Amino acid sequence: LNYKQTKFFKSYSKIHHIEIQDGFEIAFIGYSNSGKSSSINSLTCQKKLARFSKTPGRTQLINFFEVVSDFRIVDLPGYGYAKAPILVREKWEKIVYNYLEKREQLKGLVLLMDIRYPLKKLDYKIIDIAIRNNISILVLLTKCDKIKVHQQKIQLQIVYKKLCSLLDNFQIELFSSTKKIGIKKLELKLNYWYNQ
Ligand code: GDP
Known about the structure:
The chain is α/β, with parallel strands linked by helices and 196 residues long. Helix content is 34%, strand content 23%. The protein has five helices and seven strands; from the N terminus they run ββαββαβαβαβα. The structure holds guanosine-5'-diphosphate.
């Protein structure tokens, strides 16, 4: 798969509006500011691709990107706007949980967590949904360039151990869009899911 050819496809506000039923998709999720857009841009070598998801009016939508005609990257709205009004949060929960629970085309989930602040409340919630729905997870500990290499290894071990007690089916990697760390591993995992 050539991720450089990925194109913005469409945004949706409700999952029953999604008309594409063929092929498979991989969803990206994480707190806002976790580095989700940067990871999609790094993967696809396109500086602006995930900006679609950040334009006003689109931040609460499910944004679809097409890698090839039968394989899509889905950018789920970022979570954790602490000050967001309750209605906005409820809307977010509805659309994201609905997608994760009902979308049969979903092959795997990339969960992004800032390496300095992993496993926050809503990360656990997403992990819980993944367990209940048997969704395979790739965890990326993002912005790993922000801490020293030995600290990265320690943090990786800590998060790995915590996840082992919860999940059977997961992989965890260090990731940095700035330093281009983990991009190949992300690509390989997506290829694996696609070919599975
Ligand atoms: P999103 O809200 O999850 O989509 O996060 P963004 O991709 O927009 O990134 C949020 C902020 O973190 C921006 O200021 C980015 O420049 C910064 N950032 C993203 N990835 C990295 C990284 O790998 N290393 C560092 N040091 N900063 C990053």
